[in-house]
């Protein structure tokens, strides 16, 4: 296995003393995980931030081996992590995607949609501008993974969008995250709580 492609960094966890295991989403190869040597070091730690756009190079001698992954930063989401609401949204969509998708199955529409959503999260003037995109992305994820559902109407006001977001919580938890070990829905709860404060 050998590939080089633009990717979205979705998750990273420590491995050994200095390395990391990172999960990235590519357009043509789907979700792939790789071993990042020195991933916990000063140079690569800022690169392995969920939501970052990176250039990913993976190499493995066989399909069963965890590939070695090299990443180069293309666009950082780091400047927006000091914004609590934006940071919560980036954490949620990255964790959801990393956890829900099977590895090495391409989902080009999800790659494009996630990239657009992350751009909106970082550059839209307020959450009112990106909540419809979040609703659309979660709905698309459910459809792409075979759990159907209608395309949501994203033309409503913020209150309607938050209602739609709340209605998506159950199918996401039941169909995509029910058998996962980590509490990914905890990130969703934090995001919902921060969004709810906007309505008070």
Structural summary, described in words:
It is a single chain. The protein is α+β, with helices and mostly antiparallel strands and 200 residues long. The chain has two domains: 2-76, OB fold (Dihydrolipoamide Acetyltransferase, E2P); 80-199, no CATH class. It is built from five helices and five strands. It has helices at residues 84-100, 108-123, 127-144, 158-176, 185-196, and strands spanning 2-15, 19-26, 30-36, 53-59, 68-75. The protein has a five-stranded antiparallel β-sheet with strand order 3-2-1-4-5. A hairpin with a 3-residue loop joins strand 2 (19-26) and strand 3 (30-36). Helix 1 (84-100) packs antiparallel against helix 2 (108-123), helix 1 runs antiparallel to helix 5 (185-196) and helix 2 runs antiparallel to helix 3 (127-144).
Question: What is the residue-averaged pLDDT?
Answer: 93
Structural class: alpha+beta
How many strands appear in the DSSP assignment? 5
Strand content: 15-25%
Number of domains: 2
End-to-end separation in angstroms reads: 52 Å
Total of helices: 5
Query: What general outline do the C-alpha atoms trace?
Result: globular
Strand order of the largest sheet: 3-2-1-4-5
Biggest sheet details: 5 strands, antiparallel
Uncertain segments are: none
Instruction: Give the ordered list of helices and strands.
Output: EEEEEHHHHH
The percentage helix is 40-55%
What is the CA-atom radius of gyration, in angstroms?
A: 17 Å
